[in-house]
Amino acid sequence: MDGKHMLMIPGPTPVPEGVLLAQAKHPIGHRSSEFGELISEVNSNLKWLHQTESDVLTLTASGTGAMEAAIINFLSPGDRVLCGCNGKFGDRWAEMSEAFGLQVERVSAEWGQSLDPDAFGALLDADTNRTIKAVIVTHSETSTGVLNDLEAINRYVKNHGRCLIIVDAVTSVGAIDIPIDEWELDVVASGSQKGYMIPPGLGFVAVGPKAWDAYKTATIPKFYFDLAPYRKSAAKDSTPFTPPINLMYGLQAALQMMRAEGLSNIFARHERVTRAAREAVKAMGLPLFAPDEAASRAVTAVEPATVEAERVRSVMKKQFDIALAGGQNQLKGRIFRIGHLGFVSDRDLLTCIAALEATLHELGHENMTPGVGVAAATRVFSMS
């Protein structure tokens, strides 16, 4: 049936009707006073969402573009950086850093396991000459469904004193509590098609005072992603370049929805849906790829043993018009991923689990009592 497609992937995520309708407005001039008022409201709400009084700058870019800006504005060729690598995106930031001439040292963990904060601590403590200029870490590693202990890693960075922490929070902003000012995080990047509940096209970079000090001496070439013009324009309720006006309408509406729900309720909803997804998967006799103690709130990765991961995705799409994500890189064909990020409710998760039960039955998965997954998810919801 047309119009019944259901996104249960970690991005793009479902978009609320109110946001879609806001994006349908007729564009206005991006140098008009009306658009300036929109920018003023949006920037205020972005600071609220990021729990910061510092700059949160909006780029016309994907999350990767936001991360590129986060790296090139505060570092110089030859700088020594530590990069956490336990999935596709950690690896991407290491490769990106090398492309810009940085001296990269990878702090690695097996895919499906979280990064060891003490591994960062050992390198930072040994850096008596303070040559490490930045630690680059992915908070929620979407490729594996793993949440890294950002708070613990950041404590080691703060003890070091000199180096910055640069965070990929693409699938954690708007889903997980990241008190930027309380933790004194220096640079935090994210993207619109995740917890923000709007389509792809906008990237966000939150920048603290220590990072702006580093900007003064950073020499990696930049132009479109030079954050100083964005900061100057934001102070005047403007943008340095032409923005996607209709996406900005959508962002305005989405942030209004988020403020109405409240940060604590947003975080609790993502926690609840994550627990329900994981308990349902366990009840259906399917192995989870990441352990409970390191579970992302954005996506649950499943490594089935009795059925093929890609067959699960295929049947879910053809029979129920529900999109699940597949594995990436060496995990392609090994896992499937259930996204539960952004505009996702208890009802959405129950619908997905019921369809997954039917799919597993069709594919011959026998280690399952009918209805056990839905029952497990329902128990989580009833206790919340």
UniProtKB/TrEMBL annotation:
Belongs to the class-V pyridoxal-phosphate-dependent aminotransferase family. This is Tritium exchange subunit. Keywords: Aminotransferase, Pyridoxal phosphate, Pyruvate, Transferase. Residues 27-329 form the Aminotransferase class V domain. GO terms for molecular function: alanine-glyoxylate transaminase activity; L-serine-pyruvate transaminase activity. Soluble hydrogenase catalyzes both production and consumption of hydrogen from suitable artificial electron donors or acceptors. This subunit catalyzes the tritium-exchange activity. The modification N6-(pyridoxal phosphate)lysine is found at residue 194. GO terms for biological process: glycine biosynthetic process, by transamination of glyoxylate. SUPFAM superfamilies: PLP-dependent transferases. Substrate binds at residue 337. Its cofactor is pyridoxal 5'-phosphate. Heterodimer of a large and a small subunit.
